[in-house]
């Protein structure tokens, strides 16, 4: 039975701060991270999708969290094919434009340097043993096809030697018999698949293709809904050594729902086992 680590997708989201979950005395980013890390073993970092953080910032994250704590870090959006604002790119690499910047707007040298700086920003977490996985969230418009498959795998390889997990959001990756094909593609390259609760019909594919397994819960769930997910997670944990669960509930509820889910999982896993088994990839 693998370990299940549950956390929120962010500790500094505006809606979370506005929700009142943090005590008033924890009114700085550092203070909030320390308070959060006393209660959860894992957190997602989404701010890295919008800009590569300074090394000093990441050093502070590592310094203010316990030795066992892990960060799952989302890659900078430009690296996964999204358009970004020019000011999101370091000034010395920024093209001369006021329009949103695409991958192809930068030459190969600039892209290599962006990857180098992204890796450099992760070094403090790596050195502290606190980097969980790098999350690659590809654009919704990236449809399945030979070029797209090559892009996904090439981007994942750029993240090595770190553990990497991929989120594919275009329905073509899962339509018909393509779900199994997609999962086998990732598994063959030791790339993780991110299971998301808002996935396509007939429902989310609850499976892992590499270590750690990774699930993102983005919807508002009732107690009954969280109980169902607890059963899914319990079943999936039998397939992996470690399972990361990032809760991204709307309205600043992520830590509350993460706590409720943790309670469900820690009750000796006494929830009736009615979940369907994970989809086999073999």
Automatic annotation (TrEMBL):
Transmembrane stretches, by residue range?
none
Which SUPFAM superfamilies does this chain map to? TM1631-like
Q: Which Pfam families match?
A: DUF72
InterPro entries of this UniProt entry? DUF72, UPF0759_sf
The protein's superkingdom reads Bacteria
Entry's Gene3D superfamilies? Protein of unknown function UPF0759
Q: What is this protein called?
A: DUF72 domain-containing protein
**From which source organism is this entry?**
Virgisporangium ochraceum
